[in-house]
Write a structure and sequence with these properties.
single chain, transmembrane, eight-stranded mixed β-sheet, 986 residues, 49% helix, alpha+beta, 29 helices, ten-stranded mixed β-sheet, ABC3_permease_C
Amino acid sequence: MKRLHMWRATLRIARRDAWRAKGRSALVVSMIALPIIGASGLDVALRSADLSTEERLTREMGTADARFLDLGFGEPIQQYPTDRTSAYSISGYEEPPTEEDARRGLEAALPTSPERIVTDASSSPAIVTTAFGVAPAEVREVPADDPLTEGMLTLREGRFPEAAGEVAVTEAFLDLSGLKLDSTVGFPDLEDTAPRIVGVYENPSELNREQILAPPGTLIAELVEHGVVDGVDFQFLVSAPDGVPWSEVLKINEAGWLVSSRLVHHDPPPDDQVPALAEGRWHTANGDVQAFAMVGVVLALVIMEICLLAGPAFAVGARRSRRMLGLVGANGGDRRHIRAIMLGGGLLLGLVAAVVGVTLGTLLTLLARPWLESEVGFRFGALDLRPLELAAIGTIAVVTGLIAALVPALLAARTPVLQSLTGRRGVRRTGRTLPLVGAAAFVLGAGLALFGGFALNEPVAVGAGAIVAQLGLVAMTPVLVGMFGRLGRFLPLGGRLALRDAVRNRARTAPAVAAVLAAVAGSVTLATYYGSEEARNEAGYDPPVPYGTVVLSAGEERALPALSRVRDTVEKHVETTARADLARPVPEEKICEWWEGATPGCGLVRVLIPVENQCGEEERFAENRAPLPWRCTGSDGYRTSLGEEVVIGGPEVLRALGLDDHRASEALEQGKAVVLNPRALWTDTPGTEPADGTVGEVTVGLSTAETIRAEDEARYAYREAEESGSVTGAVPASHTVSVPGHGQAVALEDWMSWGPILPSDRMERFPAVYVDPGKDAVGTFSRLAVLIPPATAEAAGLPTVDYATLWSTSAPPTGAGWQAVEEVLRGIPHGPQASVERGYIGDTDIILLVIALFAGVVTVGAAGIATGLARADSEADLATLAAVGAPPRVRRTLMGMQCAVIAGMGVVLGSLSGLVPGIALVVAEHSNRLAMWEQNALGGGTDAPELFVVPPLGLLGLMIVGLPLLAWVLAALLTRSGTGLVRRAE
């Protein structure tokens, strides 16, 4: 009972003291409450955004019992029970069926007859007309008014479509297109189709999806018939009498169907009944433990920052209340009571901060909920308040207040009663134990970070060492502040006074410096890591064309008519230095992408190479990882902006690609082809690497779509035979074709060599010269293999089509000129594609800017808080300066210098301490990459990864010079020059 009365008294005294010092109390409450506002708001937002199982299923399948998706594998699959996107294909792939075929396949796969089946069809993006031109949008057909689809779509305005000629659109599509309710949506490729918008809706889980909704069977079939869309995804909502249990899901998986069952989601099977888990294809992630660890680290850092900044406020409060605390001691109170009074202040302010933080966090989340939903792109579920979690967050505020008040309470309790009553501060000495422990922790942590980076190759060890080293530096801060005091002789009067005051009042200065140190050190560590990673990415960037080159290409037949129009636009609005037009051979009447070879009218153009020049699997994947033979170097399957192996063009094409070789130009002028891949050159000694400048021949094969389809069937048959074990040993003769006068040949692309190829419908042989593009050549040469002069192609009667242009520029085009080109391209449905090579563009600049802003806010905030406390703590000293004749501006100058001194000390110490873990982290990442390179037999095919360590010198200079200067200016501007009457207690 006696102890209870003591705490009641101390809390009353703490409440009175906090009320008397409203500004300081509000400062402490705000510092503690700010992270509590963020944490409580984040908790409410995350819990509300985490949909319940029933909410998620309603958005996915409405009121249906299951949702079925045919993956098109045509063979059994394995799936995860509660994830409708995770499936493992056991066998091959087949083209997706039509809706009728898919529905028949589903009915055959279902063990029991369903009550109802509703089709949900979604097409690939179609080009539609808008108020500004054209834009892509997905077309969907699903009966929105059907009871099975209830909850999947939310009507925002108007009504859902009911008949042909009516559509509803998402709000995202309206924002994109500039259309509105009752407008019509046209399709450039369908002149007579322009349905009217009768409603606006949203997908609750995909707010940013640009989609058009039509009644079933009214629009998608027509779009497919006219080639407006490339494919359709059919899913089926099924209502079953007793639901779809896991046993039936496994049976349906045998037919290649992915099932999302409501019954299974509510009652998932154990892991041993999930084949993919039992066979080790998936592993249950330990993400909860990792997330808990990350939250714990972040929480510890936040509490440390708050304590470092709030602690000085309690220390200043103790000094300003020293007379009151002295009276407590003079009236029989002991150290225990004084500590209780100070801790009571921390407890009281922590409670206030907890209530304010949790309340404001919840309210702000409710107010910001629409904005948050629009930013994340989905609607939250019902408001989910977890009282225990919010109470735990509030407890953090109380604990933080107690921790921040702990050290000032211990110091106030040790102050003699006479010293407290007279107001004298006495002699301040820094203890030796804490700095020594801090020095030992710093050495230990730095050693662990370096050892983890250079020896263990373990980023976790680097992070742990960095945290230990930072804590050691924080403990050493009072001593380091004292060492900075020796620089006072080199500073002007204001700087000497500010530095002297900072050193004399280390209890106030050291925490602020430590807070700045911790923030800057973490920023420098991250900046070192990201800067080095960006340097590595930039060094590994392989441009497809030289810097500043404008590339215009038509990848399909319907883009060709607009090619000349776009060329004229580019030359009108873009300042160019050279131009190179390119043509490509075509097997049939259409111009198609390489993956469309089997499409009627397309076909393939391939370079045929001697079978002796082919890279075998035993060579490519040799265990000794010796340097690969010349046949296995290069990446023939890599396609760039040209996209073709064989191109028709003159010397200007090579110059536009950065290869200005006189031998290549002379060869083209003489009517010879230029070969850029040594494997493609036919010589008298096949299998021998040709030297640069070797003369020989090149063979180009043109295969029709019918031939490519026959090859595909033969490949699938060969793969089935290979899986069954009936095909073994060396590559059979069916993998090669005979080139008259040369012998056996294979296609240049290694990725095509796993199955048979058939003789091309037409083979052309051209005299050729091999030119080595060099290691520094742009990435285009890893795909472009043969350049044939136009006159030679015409003389051979080779069918060609003009399809691309390259322009060289002095600098990448920007501004109004390039915008004019993009405007013309946007107005051409299925038109040519244009791009500009602007070099490597990373996002590290944005990351470094965010890091600098974070460090700046913490630095200026910590320095400003310490300066404000110093001003409240030094009114008597400022009055003394005024009394001895100091001009009024001295007050402002002194406050500015105090803020700059604190910021400067923290930035310098933090910059030095942040470099060590940053470099160690970069080295650890490099060591891991090097180990993976050595283990994966990459030694012969690629160069070893290179180490890039790039200290953020620009950021360091900005922080060391700019932040103290910014803190100085802000503190000076916010400080009054005049001073009032002060009564000195001494």
